[in-house]
Design a protein that fits this description.
Elements (H helix, E strand, L loop, with lengths): L15 H24 L1 H8 L3 H7 L3 H21 L3 H13 L6
Helix pairs in contact: 1-4, 2-4, 3-4
């Protein structure tokens, strides 16, 4: 049994269980936000407005498509947070672009 707010969690690293639970809750929240963007696109379009760039790029209904694609990306980011892959993927992308730190 884990008492994460008291600092005891059965001999493992301090607060590991708490960080895992918080990470999962944040990932679920991010995924739900993305799901709402995909599911209720019209509400998003009414509150934020059309995106002229998307309308030019994708044609008629381009703003709706953009919001759906953005919501899908947000869902994927939420799943990466839940599975603890976000830091690995983003860190790998940044390292490949900037070359990483060189050791002398």
């Amino acid at each position: 049994m884990s008492f994460c707010f008291l600092g005891y969690n059965g001999g493992k690293e301090p607060f590991d269980d708490c960080f895992m639970i918080i990470r999962i809750l944040i990932g679920i929240g991010v995924s739900l936000a993305g799901l709402l963007m995909v599911w209720k696109t019209q509400i998003m379009l009414d509150s934020v407005g059309p995106i002229e760039w998307a309308e030019k790029m994708f044609g008629g209904g381009g703003s709706r498509l953009f919001y759906k694609l953005l919501g899908t990306l947000i869902i994927l980011i939420g799943f990466m947070v839940i599975t603890d892959l976000f830091n690995t993927v983003v860190g790998g992308a940044v390292t490949s672009v900037f070359g990483g730190a060189k050791q002398y």
